[in-house]
Known about the structure:
By secondary structure, this protein is an alpha+beta fold. The protein has helices spanning 3-16, 24-35, 37-40, 66-74, 102-107, 109-115, 149-155, 159-173, 181-187, 207-215, 231-243, 278-286, 302-312, 317-329, 332-339, 343-357, 362-372, and strands at 42-51, 56-62, 93-94, 122-131, 134-142, 192-196, 202-205, 219-222, 225-228, 256-261, 267-274, 291-297. Helix 15 crosses helix 16.
Amino acid sequence: MNANAQLISVIEDIYDTTFDQALWNNTLKRVVEYVGVKYAGAQSCALLSKGATGEIRVGHQIGITPHFVQTYRDHYGQFDPTQAIRLFDVGEIHSMKDWVPIEQYRKSQFYQEWVRPQRFEDAASVLLEKSADGFSYFGMIKGGGLVDDNLRRRLAPIVPHLRRAVLIGRILHQRATIASPIERALDTLKAAMFLLDGTGNITHTNESGRDILERKDFLRAERGRLVAADPQLNRILREAAAASVFGDGATRSESIALPFVAHAGERFVGHLLPLTSGQRAKTGTAFDATAILFVRKAALDVPQAADLIRSVFKLTPAEARVLLTIVEVGSVSESAKDLDVAESTVKTHLARIFTKTDTKRQADLVKLVAAFSSPARR
């Protein structure tokens, strides 16, 4: 079979997986064969994903023993520099040197204890999709040298088909929903959302809102009406909902802030907005609502904010990893330990981040991330 015919055959196998997920392992084996063990050094490949809560999933793979798959899921995956791929563009082929200097990578715990024992060396990775729920990517592992132009050239024509197959497969196998386009948009919000009529009855809520109601904590539903545990906040909520019936003449068009505190001490911020102006009114009419309450936990959305900051301030992959870790972990020493690099490396990247973002302290970076935090549900 000539090269073109082999490529077409592999692509056909890739699309067959959209109807039968069990075909993926054999298809990945064919991908490795096409890219070439002899000419490109391809040894194994995998489809992986990382969820919004941080769990790592190895969906399908070929060429990695079950023991090493398990240890990757349980421990070593968190040290894999490739996890930073979510910060970059879908469809681009990256190698390990895009995330960390090769010599530093070879000294890392991840390389010494997980990569080297398998006689692997480098990996070509491609981000296939990313969303509020996490991201998925493809990894082609190479032995006996680094990812080179030959491997990239062989892999490149396969990448767009891998992307489409993963997306199509997800669509075909996800549960069908009957939610309207507006409901779909509302369910992507990280903030809890409650659409209310003039008596405070809930006419619609999103997924985050349902999560809060199930807790029966600082907000609950009583016979369909939204009730706040704090009597003063409940009075404000009830009066504002009643006033919203009469339009902007009776209540302000801007939001009313409501500070909620859960029994465990967690703080939430609520914003009540009348649905009486412009586009707001259209949303309200669709659900017989006159007001909308947004409730959000007072916390940072570090990964999504870092994604935007990386793009705006032109951070390198390594700098983006350091930014994420510094904001989440705190100190330079703990960040270096978490990244499995030297403290001097973190300090070097941190200095460049300060310059690019026009900041001077780590506290300024936290403020910057807060300013870029997304309202989308992860």
